[in-house]
Amino acid sequence: MNSRNEQALKRIAIALAALTYAGAVVYGDIQFLSIMNKAFPIDGVLRALAMAGAVMTAASALTLPLALHWWFAPGLQFLWGIVFWVLDILALGLNAILAYQIAEGHVDPLLATWQTFSPATPLLAVIGWGLAFLLDPSQKARHARAEMEADQIDTYAEQMRQAAKSDEVYQEILTAAKLHAREFAQSLHGQRDNGTSKARSNGNLQNTRPFESAVETKLRGKPKGNGTSDPLA
């Protein structure tokens, strides 16, 4: 029974702490919204965007405790989460003080400098959450895999270059080159034979008729019965 009561009281305390924390964050952001309201007095797109941006500081302040508890990994990401959370709360506090002094009509010289940078407060969320994502362990694992793949590619390329210089690869290239040269020569010889056979088939009779006439003339002018001399002599 006591353990159940303790758990119930713990849950109530956590809920009240969360509501108190959220209320304080909302109060600080309302003060910053009053500054943006005076900077953009005319209703329009710019004023709406400025108000939406001003809420981002409060959104970070509400989200960071949850991220520190359930997301940020031990190490640099967790340490940066704490630093980011402190800076965000500090910016909310300075904006609340600045808004009060502007309403009173007197701004302290120390806060006058902060007044210059106060409109850029929402950009703190851009830097803070950007670094939080970069420091996430999943990013480190992805980078490690990418580096390992790049090293494997470089090693494979170097092995390919070394293998290309070996005697075995040289003999393979030489054998393939001889084979291609032989095939080219055979194809060229085949084209020449085809051209010769076509020429012979088309003009064989015309090309041999002058030769046959010359042979007949030689034979007719030769006396008969003079032995077996060459008739073309």
Could you characterize what this model shows?
- The protein is an all-alpha fold.
- It has two domains: 2-134, no CATH class; 168-220.
- Helix content is 84%, strand content 0%.
- It has helices at 2-39, 45-70, 76-104, 109-117, 123-134, 137-164, 167-220.
- Helix 3 runs antiparallel to helix 5.
- The longest helix is centred in the last third of the chain and has 54 residues, at 167-220.
- The radius of gyration is 48 Å and the shape is elongated.
- Mean pLDDT is 78; it is low at 204-216 and 222-233.
Question: Multimeric state of these chains?
Answer: single chain
Inertia-based shape: elongated
Gap from first CA to last CA: 140 Å
Biggest sheet, in brief? Answer: none
Q: Write down the Rg.
A: 48 Å
Per DSSP, the total helix count is 7
Average pLDDT over all residues: 78
Poorly predicted tracts of residues: 204-216, 222-233
Q: Given the helix and strand composition, which structural class is it? A: mainly alpha
How many strands?
0
Provide the domain count.
2
Helix content: over 70%
The secondary-structure element order is HHHHHHH
β-strand percent reads: under 5%
